[in-house]
Amino acid sequence: MTKDVNMGSAVKPRRKKIASLDRRKARSGWFFILPFLIGFILIYLPMVYESIFLSFHTIKISANTGAGYQTEFVGWGNYSEALFTDVDFVQILVSGLTQLAFDIPAILIFSLFMAVMLNQKAAGRGAFRAIFFIPVILSTGIMESIAAADIMSDYMEDTSGIDDGSGKSTADEIISTMDMERLFANMKVGTGIVQYVTEAINNIYDIVNRAGVQMLIFLSGLQSISPAIYESCKIDGATAWETFWKITFPMISPMILVNGVYTIIDSFTTDSNPVMSYISKVYADQDGQVISSAMAWIYFMIVIAVVAIIASVLSAFVFYQRKND
User: Fold this and answer.
1) Among candidates 120, 113, 128, which has minimal Cα distance to 252?
2) Using CA atoms, how far apart are residues 204 and 103, in angstroms rounded to an integer?
3) Is there a contact between 268 and 92 (Cβ–Cβ < 8 Å)?
4) DSSP designation for 185
5) Residues whose CB is less than 8 angstroms from the CB of residue 250 and which lie 6 or more positions away in sequence, other chains included
6) CATH 1.10.3720.10 fits domain 87-315
7) What are the boundaries of each domain within the chain?
8) DSSP 86-107
9) DSSP 189
């Protein structure tokens, strides 16, 4: 009898296993993206399937009344027509990629420079941060529609009342290449760099509008760097230039990768993108749905390839600080 009591008392109730912090965070993450997943599966995924389906078919109106239309499989015919028959699509695609190669470095350099400036201790820096982020807010909604309609561009091109004595239009550009050549005459700078800087300055309005998010990401990365690191560099006698390239730049290199990928995707998907505008124009034409679908998927694969190349190149120079360092 005593033995049975001892055996019964030895049995302990099982404790409920508590999920680890990482598992709870993972569950919370899935919970937050659940609305997107539901919308993607129910709404977006059928649209993607239909787009892929149309890109490999052609549409023919059925002769029978009420039968609607019929699709006929043509394989890669739509893709071949988009690449080899439609000359305008290839030209616009090449010019879009060229403009992208110009925009990405200009936006990243400008946003990083402004983030470093706004990270300095100064009176009213919060107001300056808000001022530089305002274009991001204004570039949505009605302001984006106004910009897309080129209302501001038409106003800028109207030079009535502007007389600089030369008889030439000066409203469409801030500086000229000749001005930059005079500035860099004694610095032995190549003509390619001069032209790049000139285009960047003349395109400063668009660069500022598209650099707000990148600036905010860079600013958060700069604020995550421990002040003790800068204090040790100052004690060792490092200059501000050395501190930037040895400490600041490596520490925010992951942010450069993130901003690079974000800038590429943003440039490819914006309404002002010439390729997107041309695809929409082809889609609006009669019997242009199948060709525009093929163009869209060609453009999508190019975007994925460019993102993969840029990400792989930048990843080789990214510095990740370990927690135990």
Assistant:
1) 113
2) 11
3) no
4) G
5) 319
6) yes
7) 27-75, 87-315
8) -HHHHHHHHHHHHHHHHHHHHH
9) -
- Which structure tokens are listed for 133? 């982020």
Name the 3-class secondary structure at 123.
coil
Task: Report the C-alpha gap between 161 and 169 in whole angstroms.
Answer: 11
Provide the token pair at 217: 């990401």
Q: 144: which 2 tokens?
A: 């984006």
List, for residues 43-60, the tens digit of each pLDDT value: 989 999 988 998 898 887
Query: Is pLDDT at 180 greater than 80 in this prediction?
Result: no
Placement of tokens 């409203």 in the chain: 171
**All residues at 6 or more sequence positions from 73 whose CB lies less than 8 Å from its CB, including other chains:** 56, 57
pLDDT tens across 96-128, in order? 888 888 888 888 998 898 888 888 877 766 777
d(CA 86, CA 281): 13
- The answer to whether residues 118 and 110 touch, using CB atoms and an 8 Å cutoff, is no
Per-residue pLDDT tens digits for 272-319: 788 888 888 888 876 677 888 899 999 999 989 988 998 888 888 887
Tokens standing for residue 243:
């501190």
Q: What is the pLDDT of residue 42?
A: 93
